[in-house]
Amino acid sequence: MNDQWERAKQQYRDIQPPEELDFAVASALRAGEKKRRQRRGLRRSLSAGLAACACFVLLVNASPTFAQAVSDVPVLGQLARVFTVTQYTVEDRDHLIDVRLPALELEGATDLEQRINTEIQTRINQVLQEAEDRARETKEAYVETGGDPDDFMPIVISVDYEIKCQNEHYLSFVITKTETLASAYTEYYTYNIDLQAGREITLRDLLGPDYKQIANTAIAAEIERRSQNPDNIYFLQGEGGFTSIADDQLFYLDAGGSPVVVFEKYEIAPGYMGVQEFTIPLPEGQDQAQQNK
Description:
The chain is of the alpha+beta class. Helices cover about 40% and strands about 25% of the residues. It is built from 8 helices and 10 strands. The strands form 2 sheets. The protein has a 7-stranded mixed beta sheet. A 3-stranded antiparallel beta sheet has the order 8-9-10, covered by helices on one side. β4 (about 155-165) and β5 form a beta hairpin.
């Protein structure tokens, strides 16, 4: 690790800064310049903080060695690992952005690795840009209707990930993007990989050809059980309630390798119920086949 760290530091010294920073860092620098003019007393601390943020973002993006050296790197045998490739925080008058973004490394499956990493980066860049636009438009509307710019509450945007299952057979992780203004709304992006086959897996792969019926039966039974608690309310069928999982239903794998179906806030229940998750037991035949992999 010491040799790796020294190599990483040397790579950092050799880095030539790009002509343009990431949009979020550039936004922070512009906001920081404005604050320095307005608040001379905070000049040194703000400048140092923004410089540190910019340097760290440049380093983790430009130097994979450094990113791996400073991040937690769960190693799944010799087959795969997920590591933090980008991490930064930006705060200004319009928004607070906190990002921790993963990258995937697969042995012998470079096409899949490249596709997933490109999808993650493209998707998160898009949602962050959309959130940046919403923050600007929201503040403009607030000011146009008579609001004091100094009283505007910044939009809070958080991107993070969590590894749900990691063993010699499967890797499953979830990326979440949460945006908070008056209330919080979270979007989920799930990735489930069969490490031995070198491909993403589906509910059909795990549950068999009758996967929809198996999942629907388990979810309906669990909704009925949870509804025995008067504090738990679900929408009625025909009024936004659960009828069936979708063809592209969100799910991840738990630590035991069982699929967990995810319904986002407001999807099948009122907002106060939050995200709804349902573990689907593997059919006996599928469970045995998984254990024999």
